[in-house]
Amino acid sequence: MSELPGNPSAPRLTPVQWLICAIAAIGFAFDIYELLMLPLIFRPAFIELSGLAPTAPMFADEFGKWLSRLFYIPALAGGVFGLLGGYLTDRLGRRRVLTWSILLYAFGAFFAGFSTNLWMLLFFRCAVFIGVCIEFVAAVAWLAELFPDARRREKVLGTTQAFSSVGGLLVAVAAGLAANWASSLPAIGLPGWLSGLGSIQNPHAAWRYTLMSGLIPAIPLLLIRPFLPESPAWQRKKLEGTLRRPSILELFQPALVRTTVVTTIMFACSYGAAFGAIQMMPQIVPGLPEVRAQVKEATEAAVAREVPAIVERQMRGKAESERGAVTKAATEQVSRRIAGEVGFKAASNVTKVQEVGGLVGRVLLAVLAVYVISRGKLIRMFQIPGLVVMPIVFGYAAVTGLVPLNVGMFFAGLLTVAQFSFWGNYLPRVYPMHLRGTGESFAANIGGRMIGTSFAWVTTAIATAAFWGATVSTPTRYAYTAAGVAVFVYLVGFIASFFLPEPGHEGGNE
Fold first, then answer.
1. Residues of the chain predicted below pLDDT 70
2. What CATH number was assigned to the domain covering residues 15-314+321-497?
3. Phi and psi based region of residue 447 (left: phi greater than 0; alpha: psi -120 to 50; beta: remaining)
4. DSSP 8-state class, residue 318
5. Domain boundaries, the chain
6. Cα separation, 242 vs 247, whole angstroms
7. What predicted TM-score, i.e. pTM, was given to this entire model?
8. What is the pLDDT of residues 82-128, one digit of tens each?
9. 244, 91 contact by CB (below 8 A)
């Protein structure tokens, strides 16, 4: 990590500080890795765990219901327990809470790969979301206090948070690798003593391997944890007995109420754009002409190759009159699997492009944060172009073709994802030490995770509503709805930015 301009006298990072930056970068990378799994794996997971083919009459309704549940119920759990985690970060220390939060989301993701039904998948996604919600708050507070020099702190926070987009890119790559190698990987199965949980229909499903890869961040953490220091500023105050007790009510006292309300609204808008629009892409991509053609071609080839053998195997001991029904069922089974696999690969490729854009946006934010003094001006540099770009991407490119969609998603990712890094730099500067975890958690978890992610439900509810009629395809509904939601949350966030307190006006750093 090179030195910041204008700060040549700052000492080089020590080995321990490099270690701290490494574990924080891993944490940031994999919290987004875990979150972005769901949009990628949901469609094939739903098709397998529900047993419904995309052509089934009930598919659209059930798909919409479970998409909403799996997006919002974990976010609700994450918001509630994340707020508690922020409070515990102020009470118990940054390092301890950070460590346990990463272990929680890593093991939750791994065991989600063994899901035998949608309720089981929902349970483990809740565990993942709780861990992710706590990790962000603990990591930001930890880094802010370990690097007291303002310019270095900006650079450290900006650089380590940029790894979030690396995590988003990695999950897209992991999904692609899982899709290509699934048949040669070890079969996934439950031990006999857990047979009461059901059976795994497809033990080589790519979405299962993608989920289980979320265990990766636990490995370096278990090795590195003994060498990680606690926040020296927090620990000193704790030992001296001068660390004040955190209180959620204090966030709404006159000195902090404006900061709390405005940051909560704006954080919700940032997440609203991500969950209400960008993360709907896997539901939009299957409607593109190129993807539909790929599904048709792959399905025809798979049916010709696999169905005869399936039928012959299932016809043993049955009357010849049942051949038609058996053939139909086998064809639907193969078609269902192929549709999920092709859509999964196409969505993961678009996600890679979007995450590259997000990485560029985070790096750009990290650079600008050092030189642009006004925080309101800084975030508006991303909001204003977003008001133009987002409706074009989802209202036009998302229903036209893969090439314009990939171009558009690069810029949508750049403008939206950069705002997440903004909050990681901004929030530690406006809350005092004893409230830092609690204040960050309220904005990030109540605003972002609970309110912001609810826009996934809003988009899904509107896209699956009856008023569209049968002439508008489901992917097109999602695209147009995402365009409207994106414009709404960007506009609200832009207006709120004019009320955003500048650091130092409220709160302080104690």
1. 1-11, 195-196, 225-226, 504-510
2. 1.20.1250.20
3. alpha
4. S
5. 15-314+321-497
6. 15
7. 0.76
8. 888 888 889 888 888 888 888 888 888 889 989 988 999 999 999 98
9. no
